[in-house]
TrEMBL record:
It is a lipid-anchor. Keywords: Peptide transport, Protein transport, Signal, Transport. This is Dipeptide-binding protein DppE. PANTHER family: PERIPLASMIC BINDING COMPONENT OF ABC TRANSPORTER, PERIPLASMIC OLIGOPEPTIDE-BINDING PROTEIN-RELATED. Residues 84-470 form the Solute-binding protein family domain. Belongs to the bacterial solute-binding protein 5 family. It comes from Lentilactobacillus sunkii.
Length: 552
């Protein structure tokens, strides 16, 4: 990408010129690539959880984000190491004050129904997502775009959002303040365009099955009814960069049990399989094995909204001190995952001045991450006294995947072993029921997780703000809210002050035990060596399948 000086409306601007294709390849390299490709370009893929929606406005789960990310496209795409790649935008200009962005869109982008992809599709999509009637859990991510927060609070109409189609091929976005990570957001599926004609045609059924959707990305989806566990992705002939989509078809299916998935991989029924701990140990020397570092943190989330017991800080601390994170990751998970060092994942961001990893710096002086049965018992005894109770009987909520059940079982066993007069039941439910219970606060506590949407600590810290829809446990701390707000407003243009705000906020989480971080995940993946070109974005929640192909 090339930066050049430019003037728009009297304001100095930075302009990014984007290449016209997804990859710059010489004819020779392109020819060599195609010469090395197998005649049959079909991959058998697998998932560990159910697909719940294809509606960009209603995404919440990693699998949903991955599928939408490969069947649709926004202004940018995310490549290796979170590098921005060309999408629908061909040029982006930024005003000198960092508050106005203008995007020129390519004229050859089309939807799978033949309609052109225009700036109006982006404007419509964003305003639909931010509309309180849509009830998007992810609406908070528009924070900083002009009037976004007012709209979500019903203090302004969706039409007031700072996004405007200046023409069919020019989009303008106005911010309330500079957003340091704004460009990365433009590659996130919540900011993808939507075809208004399709949304209105399908109504409430929009995005609930593959046939109730149109696509502007590399692939189209077929065969997903909304409840089944098998579907296919096929090359989208209307995609603007279809010459760089090498696969003809991806057969995808949900396999929740790692043993079944492993056996299917061994039997050549799958080209990609996610393994569990014991399998990983046996395959570490196998050339097919890939340990993918994930920017995803797993943590205990306590329901402080409708379960008064968890408003007690000593109880939250007791649960955290009772967790033997090293033993859990080494002996139970055994898949390469590592003990959590805080609520923000390691390797996500570095101090702009010193280069120090955020998590390492924030951990200094932290409490609440150590395994200490003595402290756990003392805090639990204190909690029972303050709650005027002699015992507690609680339920830990989890999903129905093997990994989720194992995690919940460990938490149950560990808490009952360390804390006297405590009874824990495990409630394992399918993903849709899990989401329903979480969003309606129908749980005591659960093993929650959050993955980075972009490579900045704010993507984690924003989640635990008092008014965030994903803060399902309802933890509130005024000091925390103030620090996170400062990092995104008054200190947004001062990298060092912004960094310190986020460091301090991270420490508040642990000192008040807002949540109890458990571990940072690793994805152990077996992959057919003939499958090439997969790009995994650890801070983008997705596999970019666009350049994937099968070699001979």
């Amino acid at each position: 990408m090339k930066k050049v000086g430019y003037f728009i409306g009297g304001c100095a601007a930075i302009v990014l010129l984007l290449s016209g294709c997804g990859k710059k390849e010489s004819a020779e390299n392109s020819g060599n690539l195609k010469a090395n490709m197998a005649a049959k370009q079909v991959v058998n893929w697998s998932e560990t959880e159910d697909l719940t929606t294809l509606d960009p406005s209603k995404l919440t789960q990693p699998i949903d984000i991955t599928m939408v990310g490969n069947t649709n496209e926004g202004l940018f795409r995310l490549g290796k190491n979170h590098k921005l790649l060309p999408g629908i935008a061909t040029k982006m200009s930024e005003s000198s004050n960092g508050k106005v962005y203008t995007f020129n869109l390519r004229k050859n982008a089309k939807w799978s129904n033949g309609d052109p992809v225009t700036a109006h599709d982006f404007e419509y999509s964003w305003k639909r997502t931010i509309n309180p009637k849509t009830a998007s859990q992810y609406g908070y991510i528009f924070d900083g775009i002009k009037n976004a927060n007012k709209i979500q609070a019903n203090k302004a109409k969706p039409s007031a959002l700072g996004v405007k189609a200046l023409s069919d091929n020019k989009l303008q976005v106005t911010l309330e303040r500079p957003i340091p990570y704004f460009k990365l957001l433009m590659a996130f599926p919540l900011f993808f365009p939507q075809n208004q004609k399709a949304v209105e045609k399908y109504g409430k059924a929009y995005g609930t099955s593959s046939s109730k959707m149109v696509y502007d990305g590399p692939f189209k989806m077929n065969g997903w009814t909304g409840t089944n566990e098998k579907w296919t992705l096929t090359a989208n002939k209307n995609y603007w960069d279809k010459k760089h989509v090498y696969l003809a078809k991806i057969n995808d299916q949900v396999v929740k049990d790692p043993s079944t998935m492993y056996n299917m991989y061994q039997g050549n029924q799958l080209d990609v399989a996610t393994l569990s701990g014991s399998q990983v140990k046996n395959e570490l020397k196998n050339k097919d094995m890939h340990l993918l570092k994930d920017s995803r943190i797993f943590y205990l989330e306590f329901n402080q909204r409708t379960r008064p017991a968890f408003k007690n800080k000593a109880l939250r601390q007791a649960f955290s001190y009772a967790m033997d994170r090293k033993s859990f990751t080494k002996n139970v998970l055994a898949d390469g995952s590592v003990p959590a060092q805080g609520f923000v994942t390691q390797g996500l961001a570095n101090n702009p001045k010193t280069g120090e990893d955020f998590t390492k710096e924030a951990k200094q002086g932290n409490t609440g991450l150590e395994y200490n049965p003595t402290k756990a018992k003392a805090k639990y005894k204190q909690a029972l006294k303050e709650l005027n109770k002699k015992s507690l009987h609680l339920e830990v909520l989890c999903g129905d995947s093997t990994a989720a059940k194992h995690s919940a079982a460990y938490v149950q066993g560990q808490l009952e072993k360390i804390l006297p007069n405590l009874k824990i039941d495990v409630s394992s439910v399918p993903l849709k029921a899990l989401i329903q219970r979480q969003t309606h606060h129908q749980f005591d506590f659960f093993v929650s997780n959050w993955g980075a949407d972009y490579s900045d600590p704010y993507t984690f810290l924003q989640v635990l703000q008092s008014n965030n829809t994903f803060n399902e446990g309802g933890w509130t701390n005024k000091g925390y809210d103030k620090l996170v707000k400062q990092s995104a407003s008054t200190d947004a243009t001062n990298p060092n002050k912004r960094w310190q705000d986020m460091i301090d906020a991270s420490r508040v989480i642990m000192s008040d035990q807002g949540v109890a971080p458990l571990y940072q995940a690793t994805i152990p993946q077996m992959r057919n060596p003939k499958v090439k070109g997969i790009v995994y974005n650890s801070a983008g929640l997705s596999f970019n399948l666009k350049g994937m192909y099968v070699s001979k």
